[in-house]
Structure formats: structure tokens, C-alpha cells
Amino acid sequence: MQFLQLVISGISQGCIYGLIALGFVLIYKATETVSFAQGELMMLGAFCGLGVMTFLEYPFWVAVLASIAAMALFGILLERAVIRPILGQPAFSIVMLTIGIGYVLRGLVTTIPGIGTETHTLPVPYKDMAFNLGALTLNAEQLVVIGTTAVLCAALFALFKYSKLGIAMQASSQNQLAAYYMGIPVKPLNGLVWGLASAVAAVAGLLLAPITFVHANMGFIGLKAFPAAVVGGFGSLPGAIVGGLIIGVVESLSGFYLPDGFKDTAAYIVVLVMLMVQPNGLFGERLRKKV
Amino acid sequence: MDSLLSAQNLSVRFGGVLAVNNVSFDVKRGEVFTLIGPNGAGKTTVFNLISRIYTPTTGTIDYQSSQGMLRLTEQPAHKIASLGIARTFQNIELFEHATVLHNLLIGRHTHRQTSLWQDLLFTGTARAAELKAREKAEEVIDFLDLQHHRDSLVAGLPYGVRKVVELGRALCTEPQLLLLDEPSSGLNVEETEDMAFWIQDIQQELGITVLMVEHDMTLVSKVSNRVLAMNQGEVLALGSPREVQTHPGVIEAYLGTIDDVSNLRREAA
Amino acid sequence: MRFIFKTDYAQDIRLAKHGGHVFWYSLLVLCLLAAPWLIDEYWLAQLTFVLIYGIVGLGLMLLAGFTGLFSIGHAAFLGVGAYTQAVLTNMGIPFPIALAMSALLSAAVGLVVGLPALRVKGIYLGIATLSFGFIVEEVFARWEKVTGGNAGIHIKAPDLFGFKVDTADGFYFLCLVLAVLATLAILNLLRSPTGRAFVAIRDSEISAQSMGIQLAYYKTLSFALSAALAGIGGALYAHKLQFISPDQFNIIQSIDLLLMIVVGGLGSVHGAFLGAIFLIVMPQLISLSKDFLPEAIGQAPGLQSVVYGSVLIAFVLFEPMGLYGRWLKVRTYLQIFPFYRRGMFKRQKSFQKSDRLK
Predict the structure, then answer these.
(1) Across the interface, do C313 and A97 touch by the CB < 8 Å criterion?
(2) Is there a smaller number of Cβ atoms within 10 Å at the N or the C end of chain C?
(3) Residue B252 C-alpha, separation from nearest chain C C-alpha, in angstroms
(4) Whole domain around residue A168: which residue ranges?
(5) What is the DSSP string of B193-247?
(6) Whole-number Cα distances in Å, C124 to A219, A232, A244, C306
(7) In this complex, do C123 and A111 lie within 8 Å of one another by their Cβ atoms?
């Protein structure tokens, strides 16, 4: 029973990693840039929700929708202001830029007088609810995480497989110049992708808030989402979720069964093993340059 | 003339695609041997098999190196240059953020004489080796008239010049066998004529055997000793340029049959 | 304007290309030698840190700037060097031997970290090195018998076979000598076949291979050399601070190192030192300006984060060639005045091409 309990808690944590990883992979699939700012965007989304609920005193659902919308808009603006000018630069520079964005966001939130440096609780309606299934105790928070992730994934899958938008995004990520020639509005598309990724980050933040509380250093969880994206294969959306789940479960189990210290490094050991065994991840593409 | 390189029954399969199917040919020492064929015929794939970027599914390649007959298909990719085989690439693969001279000096890598420690301390031996490498690179610069561009960054150079730099880099390795992948693609008439002269000089003055892939038939007729025509991964014809160009199978591959042509004709209004 | 007429191949091989170089760099060396007598103790300590970070920066520049392999966990090598030096010095082993051991052990760890590099590229390699960084940090914290765990350890002063270097001035000279040697080693590498092989791997792996460069050997070598330099820097760092603990070698430190080489100028030796100067001077500037800023901004806890992030963003957006690049532009402007044209250094606008197909 303990085992199953651990697995469920691992799946729930893994879903969070998966959602953040999903954000990375969305941006990577569409623009081939790696964004280290996803964690901080998630943190910002959680603070948005907090702000709407505790200061504007709106109900939970309004806060959720408002945060998602606000973050989506923020993502689009961010792309327009900061990311667009540097497209074409080597990948490394873009990574450093997103790290810089993360720093700035974290610093700005910490600067907000009174709120920034404190830890807050997000008053969600399903807080402290739990179900008992035989000997298992299922936290409502964990169930909401798992459920929301499943719904979101289905929606994104449909978007990419069946809509013109999805195909356009993939095209522009592989060869931007050719995409321009084909009449694909590459720049607005990139903005849209960033908006989408930020919205996903906001959802992740709101889901995570009841579990870890809302504080400025929430974003560091984003670092664990990278192994998730890599394990799944960096260009694959289902891979991001699967990778997240694997990391989450391994982490949860190793925290209990293995000695101290393995819980924190479990994610990283898994990713190293994966890179040795299957360098492109579970669902990644094995592309090679044709000369 | 003996056989320098001999490919036997080469086949390579990528997933479901049979890119090269049972191709055999041999390149005699001192000749210019050209592969022709429509796009997708598998010519560059054959090059990549010789450079060991790909491994053949079946078949072997034998090569007469200075150490005797070698099975090339058993050698790792980075050994090919030291065996005396150099190549240029279809879509130029130069070192973009380095100068032309730098690129040529990298071509001298197989002739390096210093160890890591000698490099770190830059001993007298390292200095002498550097000067020697520079002299050799300068010989190639003279041969190809690249003096004007010696210190320019490759990234800013026009396409024609970059093709010549690629050729120069390959020559710096002092090869026995030079693989040229579409040397005249993207070049204008003048530049193609220069290329023709250089290929002839490479063969006659430097004594290097040339294996090339080409589309420009004028260039092919001018410089080649023998031509191999390929289509859809298979050998169509082998012989002198004139023989291959008049081979019916080759004409069909390039132009289509009489039926295809007649379908293109429009009825008078 | 300066025209350099070349009459000899050796001119291109020489490190100092013309009289001006010789003059200015000699002046720099003289100033550095006279520093203990010219500046006060606090700033001498900062200068020592600049030299230490410069050495580490040289290593990271070699790896990321010249070989194109990105290491997001570089602080791990710093830590290995620091802890090895700490443990060995506390056991009484003389400084030069302990330093050599630190460098060797860091190089060995570098070799291990470099193994994924042989199979993966780009972001995958970055994540692999990031993972190693976390794992090594955890090892420092858990291996309490050797490293003292999270409590950290104190280090005794360097002992050069009986001659104890326990003054700030003495230690400064030690760092200066090592920094100069490291710089010369890297410059020598770059003008020799090994350095050219590294650059070739960065620009085009396939054609590097067809020129006879064995990728596995050179990539591993790059990691090992880079880690060795970081190890040496780490050893000096340990002596300077006289106390180290695992949280000094975490992801934040790794990102600081990357920040250093990006701001300094990727792909140049000068960039390592300019970046080190930036890294040390920036916090000082922030503290100094706190007095001039309004209360709300100056005392904000997130100020350092915001400034660091903004500077990083600004450099990537406006000065991708880093501080060294900006210096080059200024120097060119002065050298060819009034013929300088706007856009002389402008990169050709390029479109994003898939990295996966590189």
C-alpha cells in the first residue's frame, strides 16, 4: 500500500514536472529555442492567482482564468520585446537570455513590498480534501493535478495534430526562412507559442501552489523539469509528460527506499542513464545532418 | 595503371529506402573518374560511404593505401584523411568563424608532428612545425590564387570563393585520392573554367587521383577519363564520357523515353 | 592607423603581433606586479578574485567558446578542485603537489562528465552537465567523512615546501603567476593544431572528422583541460576564502560562470578576464549605488537578481560579442577615425535554422 501511495504522489509531482516540461517543449518545437524561464513564469502565474484571490478577492475560478489570460498575454509581450530581436543567434545566447529573464522575474517579485519575500497559501476550494479508497488516501490536490494535466494534454495533442496552426509551428521550427516563403506568419506565430507556453506554466503554478505554497523561489522546480523533457525526448510533447511522470515516480520511490540524498538527485541520475542508453530520449527524433 | 579504390557490390539501406543498390566500380590511379546521374541517384551517398559517414548494408570498399591494400569499410571515419583520402562537400562545410588560412591549416591536421604537451608549452618543435604547416598551406594558396582572401573570415566570403577554399582545404591534406562533390555547382562560366583547369592541374602536376560527382556535362567531358552513370541507386553505364553520354539508358534517365516526350507536346490550337 | 607589413610567417605565429601589443601588455604586467603597493588591501583581495575567476573563465571559454560544448554545471569542477586542495593541504601536503592533484582529479571528473558529450549535442549536453553539477554538489554534502558535509571545512595557508604563503600580498603573487601561466597555455593551444581542432569541432563536426580530427579524443580533451583549469581556480578559491561549503558550488555559481564568459565575450581569451572583472565589480557597484537610489529600489532584496538578469539580457540583445566585442569596436573606431562606418561589425541577418539538422 505504501508503494502505491508513493507511486500516486510521484505521478502527481510528475505531472507538474511534465507540465513545465511541456512548456519547454512547446517553445522548442516551434522556435527551437530552449527557455530556462519556464520555472519563473510558473512562479509568476501562481503569484497572479494569489493576487487575484487575496487582494482583489475574486473567487477561485475567476482567479484561474485571469491568471491564465494574464500570463498568456505576458508571454506574447515577452516574446515580442525580448526574444524576437535575437532569433538567429546561436542557441547558447538564447539560453543565457532566458536565464536572465528568469533572474529579472525572480528579482522583481522579491521586490514587491511585503509579499515578495514571504510564503503564501493559495486558498483553493479543494484544499485539505482527501478521499479514502480502501487503505489509500488520495489527496484532492493530487487528483486535480493529474486530471488537469490529462485534459490539457489532450487539448494540445489535438491542436498539433489536427490544426493548421500546429503544422505551421512545426514548419517554422525546422526552417524559418522556408516558412516565411510559404506565407506562414512566423513572428506572430512565435508570439502565440510563447503565450501558450506561459499559459501552461500558469496552470502548472496554480496546480503546484496548494502543494508547495507560493513563494519566489518556486521556479527552481523548473530545473527538475529539464530532465523530464530530456528523458521524454526534447521535441516530443507526449514525451515531456511521460518523462515528467517517470522522474516524479522515481523521485518519490527513491525518497522512501533509498538512503538520504538520492531523492534530490534521482531526477539527474535518471537523465544521465537515459542519455547513455538512448541519447535522444524516449520519443525523440534521431536526426542527422545530410552532407 | 593499377586500381586505387575498388567498390564491390555496395548497397546501403536507410529505413525503407535502398539508396545505393549493388554498385561496383574501380578507380584507377592517376585518373579522373566521374559519377553522373540525376538527383537522388545516390552519388553523394557513395561518397559518404567512402568517407565512412555511412556504413554499407552490404558490400565492401578496398583501397590501396601506402600501407598496402585496406578494407576501407572497416576503418573509422577520422582515419580516412590520414589514409590519403580527402573530400569536399556538396553544401559547403567550412569552418565559418575562422579565416581562410585557418581553414587550410586545419586541413594540415593529419600531418601534425606535435603532442599535446608540446602544444601547451609551444616548444621549438611546435614552432618549427607551425612554420612548416604554414608553408604548405601557402603552396595551396598560390595554386588556387587565394592570396587576396587569406585573412578573411569565411563567413563573409562569396559562394564561389568558398568553394575554392573547400578545395584548398582538401588539397592541404596532401591526398592520394580527392573526392569532389559537385565542384562546379553554383559557379558561373568563368569560375567553372577555372575549376576545370585546376582539376587538370591536380591530376597532372600534383599526381592526385580525382573521383568526382558532377552535373555539368561540359566540365565532365573536358576533364574526365571515365564516367559512371547512376540512376536510383544503381549503375547504368560505365565508360568514356562520349560512350556514357550517348548510352540510351542514360539518355532515358535524364530526358525520359520517346513516349514521355510526346506526351509533353501540345496539340496545335 | 596601423599597417602591419608581414615579411615573415613567424609574425603570424607570435603572440604579440606588433610593437603596440608589446608596449601595452608589458605595461599591464608592470601594473599588476606593482599592485600590492598601489592599491589598498580590500581592492587587492578583489583583484585576486578576478585572477582566480579568470583562470576558471579561461577553462570554460576553452570548452564553450572554442570547442562549442556547453557546460551548465561547471561549478562542480570548481568544487572538486577546492575540496581536493582543502583535504590535501589539511593533511600537510605542500601546495604545488596538492595543486597538481586538484588539477588531475578535476580533469578526471571532467573526463567522466565529458563522456555524454561523445553521444549527445547541444541542449542535451547542457542538461547532462547540469545533472552532473547537481550530483557532484550532493556528493559534497553527503560525503561527510571527507568533505565535512554541509558544515564545510577550513583550509590552512598554502605551504610551498616550507615557505608559508600566509600574507595577502604573497597569495596575490601566487595567483598572478598561475593566471599568467594559464593564459599563456591557452594562447599556445590556440595557435597550435590542438586549438585548431577544437575550433573545427565547434564549427562543423562532420568536416572536422573528414580532416582527420578524432572527435572523441578532442572533445574529451577539451573537457579535461577545462576541468583542470577550473580545479586550479577552485584550489586557489579555497585558500583565499579559507572556508568552503557545498552550497558555494551550486547551480547559481555555475550560472555565474556562464554569465562571466557571455558578458566577457564568447570566443576570446580577453573575454574570460573581462568577464571576471565584471563578475567581481558588479556587486560592488550595486552596493555603492544603493546609497544614491530611492529607498524602495535600493533596499529591495531582489535588486541584485534584477540587475544581473537585466545586464545579461542587455548584453545578449545589444552586444552579443560581449565586453571584448565592445572594446574591439571602440578600438577600431579610434584606429581608423574618421573612416569608421556604422555596422562594420554587424552580423548578417540570419534566419533560424534547425539546430537538430546541424
Answers:
(1) yes
(2) N
(3) 34
(4) 2-118+133-220
(5) HHHHHHHHHHHHTS--EEEEE---HHHHHHH-SEEEEEETTEEEEEE-HHHHHT-
(6) 21, 12, 16, 28
(7) no
DSSP C220: H
Sign of CA dihedral C188, C189, C195, C196: positive
Q: State whether C124 and A116 contact (CB < 8 Å).
A: no
Residues 217-276 of C with CB under 8 A from B: 221, 267
Q: Is there a domain that residue A291 lies in? A: no
Q: Check CB contact of B97 with chain C, cutoff 8 Å.
A: yes
| H or E element at residue C50 | helix C41-60
Write out residues 101-130 of A within 8 Å (CB-CB) of C: 101-111, 113, 116-117
Q: Which domains does chain C have, with CATH numbers?
A: 41-293 (1.10.3470)
Q: Which of C67, C306, C352 to mutate to test the interface with A (most CBs of A within 10 A)?
A: C352
Residue A231 lies in a domain: no
In a domain, A247, yes or no: no
DSSP B108: G
Query: A287 at the B interface (CB within 8 A)?
Result: no
Whether residue C211 lies within 8 A of chain A, CB to CB, comes out as: no
Give me the amino acid identity at A144: V
Give residue limits of the domains in chain B: 3-84+175-264, 103-172
When CB atoms are compared, the residue of C13, C188, C193 closest to B112 is C193
Of A87, A96, A279, the CB nearest to C120: A279
Cα C184 to Cα C16, C56, C58, C179, C269, distances in angstroms: 12, 14, 11, 9, 10
B91 touches chain A (CB under 8 A): yes
Which CATH number is correct for B3-84+175-264, 2.40.10.270, 3.40.50.300, 3.30.360.10, 3.40.190.10? 3.40.50.300
Number of domains in chain A: 1
CA distance B87 to chain C (A): 7
- The answer to whether B87 contacts chain C (CB < 8 Å) is yes
Give the H/E segment covering residue B18: strand B17-28
**Length of chain C (residues):** 358
With cell 592599491, the residue in question is C39
Residue A208 in grid coordinates? 503546484
Yes or no: say if B30 and B54 are a contact pair by the CB < 8 Å rule: no
What ipTM is given for this predicted complex?
Answer: 0.87
Reading chain C (358 residues) residue by residue, the pLDDT tens digits are: 677 788 888 888 888 777 778 888 889 999 999 988 888 889 899 999 999 999 999 999 999 989 988 899 999 999 999 999 999 988 888 889 999 999 999 999 999 988 887 888 778 888 889 999 999 998 888 888 887 778 788 888 787 777 777 788 888 999 999 999 999 999 999 999 999 999 999 988 889 999 999 999 999 999 999 999 999 999 999 999 988 988 889 898 999 999 999 999 888 899 999 999 999 999 888 888 877 777 766 677 778 888 889 999 999 888 888 899 888 888 888 887 777 777 666 655 555 455 444 4
How far apart CA A87 and CA C353 sit, in angstroms, is: 10
For residue A258, tell me if it sits in a domain.
Answer: no
